[in-house]
Amino acid sequence: MNRTEEFQELRPLLFSLAYRILGEVGEAEDTVQETWLRYAAATTEPRSVKAFLSTTVTRLAIDVLRSARVRRERYAGPWLPEPLLADPYEDPARAAELADSVSMAALLLLERLSPLERAVFVLREVFDFGFPEVAEAVSRSEPACRQLALRARRHMSEGRPRFAADRREREELSSRFFDALREGDVAALQGLLAADVSMVGDGGGKAPRLARAVAGAKHVARLLDLAFSRTARLGVTWEPREVNGAPGAIVRDRDGRVLKALALDVLDGRIQAVRLVVNPDKLRHLGPVGDAWAIDREARRRPRE
């Protein structure tokens, strides 16, 4: 097997590592590409190709994340990860960990960690790397990595719900959610939402978004119904899809261009959070992006039927 074939075989793992560390699809793809360039230029053959590539992509991702932290501090409005429709890496033995770690909720919790804590947590807890491999990847001693992993686990466990919904429960609830939206049944929609549900939008100053997070089942249900009914008359469609391993949708204009991605957090038989990614820069990897501003202006001009 030549270097190109070896790299392509490990590419899904490398992207999945980089995406979880960075929370951005474009940055993850760029980091994987830089990893390939360094591997292709290496003058000696590494003892372990997997170890070499994993170490390289991790170190590059840590550097990118450190600079990204500065940008995110200046970000206009709430920041959400870039939506991921399909994780290219599969491991049946760690399917649950992989699915949980790519959710919007988990990625937002990872944002609370330092870049080193985040990298160690992803390598150790998500992908089950041994501490010698983790230490090599982050250029720290094994005892230091164990401490980093301990702190990261503590922070993550403090923010996670105690009980997660199974896949069948989430699918059934999301199906009822989108049925209620299409039918304009606000009461049914409200009944699917947790009493303290929150809805947040990420426009990055480049697309219409919520002025602030909306909380409470009554307010969120009414706002969702209003948004759906107004835009549906303009040919906008809500295409149910799995987004970051959870129920969600891709919203498209009449020409099929992407306007937003929606992800739902489900727990205890209710939707706990609705997250909307509207920033066009975060949607380009999903296909051609529509003009959300134009849709918003037209929707506001038309009276509600």
From TrEMBL:
It holds the Pfam family Sigma70_r4_2. Keywords: Sigma factor, Transcription, Transcription regulation. Residues 7-69 form the RNA polymerase sigma-70 region domain. Residues 105-156 form the RNA polymerase sigma factor 70 region 4 type domain. NCBIfam families: PRK09636.1 (NF007214), sigma70-ECF (TIGR02937), SigX4 (TIGR02957). Belongs to the sigma-70 factor family. ECF subfamily. PANTHER family: ECF RNA POLYMERASE SIGMA FACTOR SIGJ, SIGMA 19 FACTOR. Interacts transiently with the RNA polymerase catalytic core formed by RpoA, RpoB, RpoC and RpoZ (2 alpha, 1 beta, 1 beta' and 1 omega subunit) to form the RNA polymerase holoenzyme that can initiate transcription. This is RNA polymerase sigma-70 factor. It comes from Streptomyces pyxinicus.
